[in-house]
Design a protein that fits this description.
Blueprint (H helix, E strand, L loop, with lengths): L2 H8 L2 H7 L9 E2 L11 E3 L4 E3 L5 E2 L1 H9 L3 H12 L14 E3 L6 E3 L5
Antiparallel strand pairs: 1-2, 2-3, 3-4, 5-6
Helix pairs in contact: 3-4
Length: about 110
């Protein structure tokens, strides 16, 4: 699994939006933080978000990248550090031989010689 697949498997869009202060109604619709939104237009599903006002869309990593003006990799790291402190992530990323420590949220290299 890649870092992106691991984060997407562990954290959904609704969890991330709640953690970062976006309040959705019972239908999963919130005010969009990407434009001046007076009436909720951001639809939040488990796997993706879509704004009917500005057309923004993506997964949990795209959401955090846009919210904090980060690259996708930095957004994945932020999600891992902010939302997985008390629970383990799924398997480590075999293609990159990297593991995120659930207690510290930091990356650890598992390749000898690093």
């Amino acid at each position: 699994m890649t870092i992106y697949e691991t984060i997407k498997a562990a954290i959904n869009v609704k969890q991330a939006t709640e953690h970062y202060g976006l309040k959705a109604n019972r239908n999963g619709i919130a005010c969009c933080p990407f434009h001046n939104d007076r009436h909720p237009s951001l639809k939040l599903n488990e796997d993706y978000f879509f704004c009917f006002g500005c057309g923004s869309k993506g997964d949990v990593i795209d959401l955090v990248a846009r919210l904090f003006n980060l690259s996708n990799y930095e957004a994945a790291q932020k999600l891992a550090s902010d939302l997985t402190r008390n629970r383990p992530l799924p398997q480590l990323w075999s293609s990159q031989s990297v593991l995120i420590s659930a207690s510290s949220g930091r990356m650890k290299c598992c390749v000898s010689g690093c």
